[in-house]
Amino acid sequence: MKKIVVFGPGPGFKGGIANFSISLAKAFARIKHTETHLVSWTHQYPFFIPRNFIDDKSKTNLLESQGVTVHYTLNYNRFFSWRKTYRVLAELNPDFIVFQWANPIQAFPIAYLIRKLKENTAIRVVIDLHFGNRKENSEFVKRLTVHTIQYADAYVVHSYKTAVEVKQLFPMLTFHLIEEGKCQDNKGKPILKLYHPIYDMYSPDPSFDVALQKEQLHLKKYVFLFFGFIIKYKGLHNAIEAFAQLAKSRDDVSLLIVGESSWQIRSRRKWLRRMFSRYIRRWLVNSGEDEGNYRPLELIDRLGIRDCVTVVNEYVPHEDVHKYYQVSDAIVLYYDMPATASGVESIAYNFRLPILATRVGHFPETVKDGITGYLADPNSLSSMVQAMQNIIDQPLFPENFNEIAQKMNWMNYANSIYEMAKSIRPA
Q1: Is 326 helix (H, G, I), strand (E, B) or coil?
Q2: Which CATH number applies to 210-261+297-406?
Q3: Is pLDDT larger for residue 64 or for residue 121?
């Protein structure tokens, strides 16, 4: 029997990486003759990071009765927990571990674990990269990334862009790009090119009263949805400005904004956290990308569109996610800059919800223009408005999503990693 470990935030944490780790562990557990463990954080970030990352709203345990054993061990702020987590991983002695790498702030404990594992065990280490060269393009972030992922035996990426970035981070190494369904030849360190699988933890409720929900949310006929954490690169400001232009010529459209603001501290008493968070952002992001002063919701009143915008500025529990997708006609992803695959986009596929995105990063690879969504030119407000208008004038059909939904599932994803990991020759 093969033993597999997924390292990442487990049930009880907010965010896309927690959902990703949970879904991947569930998929590995469904492979025959495998034993699957999820080793999780207890605290993911330094004490001075202001946001609350604990999901205290969702009632559903997404790993309950799924055949996955969960271990909560790693506390960023307690070094003895780093050593404890290493011992847990070493004692489990899996055939391979898949680490989720998504945030440079987490570099030090993850780098410690990977280095100790490679120095003292024969466990294969695979890193699932949710970015290569961090979106904010900070030189310090590049160094943290190299420091953390250099010891891995193989990498998984969700776009060709990320594969290129990995090669740029390690110009002296030889890599071998493996695409789904193709066998590797063991020449160089493997980079497995996959995709962001479609989240099946969120599904439409056939009995859900869409009309009633739209009435309660004060939504009009056509609804454009921005969903997820409000972070600058995701371009909520673009969505608001484009929608404001559309609303000038139509009185039957609504913008629905659902998500928790990032990097904001509401308590005046947390002055120490404010000070530390400002300092750390200077290291992690370029000055133009600092989230501390990002307040796109202020645009709503400035542009005079309060009567056709509904804002739910809070974290949404698992049980309520479907409500916002089912009342919407399209998801809006007008990103400002290239980024890795979007969990919000992944959820949209499961709801057969058209995607409006800018032509940056992976979106030209995943959004089929005119079939599963419409692509807009970045930094072009008129192009973004036109994409919104296209949803009304040229609606897309749910069956357009069937082929991609069948291909981009978690079992295909997990099996691809499983087959690649078996062929790795540990150093």
Answers
A1: helix
A2: 3.40.50.2000
A3: 121
Q: Is 396 exposed, middle or buried (0-12, 13-18, 19+ CB in 10 A)?
A: buried
CATH number of the domain at 2-197+409-423, please? 3.40.50.2000
The residue written with tokens 């419409």 in the block is 374
- Phi-psi category of 249—alpha, beta or left, where left has phi over 0 and alpha has psi -120 to 50? alpha
Handedness of CA 138, 282, 136, 379 (dihedral sign): negative
Task: Specify the DSSP class assigned to residue 197.
Answer: P
Q: Phi and psi at residue 325, in whole multiples of 5°?
A: -70, -40
| Residue 54: per-residue pLDDT | 85
Name 399's Cβ contacts closer than 8 Å, sequence gap at least 6: none
Decide if 2-197+409-423 and 210-261+297-406 have a common fold. yes
- Do 40 and 72 touch, CB atoms closer than 8 A? yes
Nearest to 39 by CA among 65, 69, 67: 69
Parse the chain into domains and list their residue ranges: 2-197+409-423, 210-261+297-406
* pLDDT tens-digit series, residues 357-374: 999 888 988 899 999 999
DSSP structural state of residue 262: S
User: How many CB atoms are closer than 10 A to CB 16?
Assistant: 20
pTM as predicted: 0.88
